[in-house]
Amino acid sequence: MIKNSNNRFIDVLLALNNAEEYNQLLGRIQLQKYIYLSDTISVIWDILAPAEGHETYKNGPFDESITNAVDVLAFRGFVVVESMHMEHSKVAVSYKISKAGIKLFEALNNEEHFQNKIMLFNEMAKHIEKTGWKKLMELVYSEPTYIQSRATGYGYKFDYMSLFTNESLRILYQFEEMLQNGQRITKQNMLSLFFKLLN
Q1: Which helix (H) or strand (E) holds 87?
Q2: With the C-alpha atoms ordered 34, 39, 45, 46, is the resulting torsion angle positive or negative?
Q3: How confident is the model at residue 3, as a pLDDT?
Q4: Among 87, 82, 86, which residue's Cα sits nearest to residue 97?
Q5: Mapping DSSP to helix (H, G, I), strand (E, B) and coil, where does residue 98 land?
Q6: Are 169 and 43 in contact (CB under 8 A)?
Q7: If we measure between CA atoms, which residue out of 14, 32, 12, 44 comes closest to residue 166?
């Protein structure tokens, strides 16, 4: 089993497995954005977000450990580099999960510890599919936490677990508080609200 202190290997596998289910390839930036959106709402799904995760960068939130994780997974045969070409003087790469990666995902899927994260990534993929995979960057650029933090310049680290810094989380909890008669919003409904907020 692949282990990493911040679970980025697992995050990459889950993102690419879900993209595969919708016949999508993910480039480096799309992969970053998918995982960023998952991190932003992870606390609602009872998942600890990484302490050292994304930070502000020129193409939006960026976490170098995701790039490192996908490269290691590709080297080990769990991820396939599907295409590579020059785009705006930079190398653009698209990834997909390999057969070995799918087997590794199936092993993760049998472990109780990963069930919340797997459900979050599955639900996230459903909403991304409805919105459009090509709009991942637009979704992140309209996400309240990112909007508030980008004015700080490059290198600002996101704190996903704090209601003081995670604007999306604060807004979603305010929605929940607005409900009357003791009703509660499910995790799935919170994710739906999150995507309505982004759109």
Answers
A1: strand 79-87
A2: positive
A3: 43
A4: 82
A5: coil
A6: yes
A7: 44
Beta-strand ranges (E) seen in 5-78 are 26-27
Helix (H) or strand (E) segment spanning residue 68:
helix 64-75
DSSP state of 41: H
Q: Residue 80 in 3-state DSSP?
A: strand
pTM to 2 decimals? 0.86
| 171, amino acid identity | I
The DSSP symbol for 20 reads H
- Of all helices (H) and strands (E), which one includes residue 91? strand 90-97
**Residue 25 in contact with residue 133, Cβ under 8 Å?**
no
- Direct distance between the N- and C-terminal alpha carbons of the chain, in angstroms, rounded to an integer: 37
Residue with tokens 């909007």: 147
Name, in order, each residue with C-beta under 8 angstroms of 107's C-beta and a sequence gap of 6 or more. Answer: 1
Low pLDDT (below 50) residues in the chain: 1-6
Q: Residue 98 — φ and ψ, nearest 5°?
A: -90, 175
Q: What is the pLDDT of residue 188?
A: 81
DSSP label at 50?
A: P
Token code pair at residue 72: 């290691």
Contact 124, 18 (CB under 8 A): yes
Distance CA 102, CA 149 (A): 36
Alpha helices in 132-199 (DSSP H): 136-141, 144-149, 167-178, 187-198
Distance of alpha carbon 91 from alpha carbon 16, whole angstroms: 20
* Of 2, 3, 38, residue with least CA distance to 122: 38
Adjacent-strand bridge partners of 95? 26, 81
